[in-house]
Fold this protein.
Amino acid sequence: MAVVLRLVLRQAFCALCGEKFFVCRKCEHGQRYCGEACSGKVRQRKRREYERDYQATMKGRLNHAKRQQEYLLRKARARASKKVTDHTLVERLFSGKLAREQIERVPSMYRCWFCGRPGVVIRSAQ
């Protein structure tokens, strides 16, 4: 008799948008967000807060003034040299992960939000 092993998924809810998602043990890294869109928004928000706080310090103000002066010098040199660069598009390499649109729906099974493998849910994380 063959033993069938099923992939076990953890159910979670996105800390930003509240969407329910499932994640397998292989992809489990303590995710709090449903994907790159939500985690990117939070990361951007946190970074802006940090940058705003840093700009309020004397060191931040001095570094900003220095960078602005260097930028104006580069801009003046670029106008003087008038270089033209290549503007071709670089295609992204296929990452090996399946896009959500490519994954078929399997009845009575859930899929890992990150890798797309089907499995069963054993517990919920609140």
Summary: The CA atoms of residues 14 and 33 lie 4 Å apart.
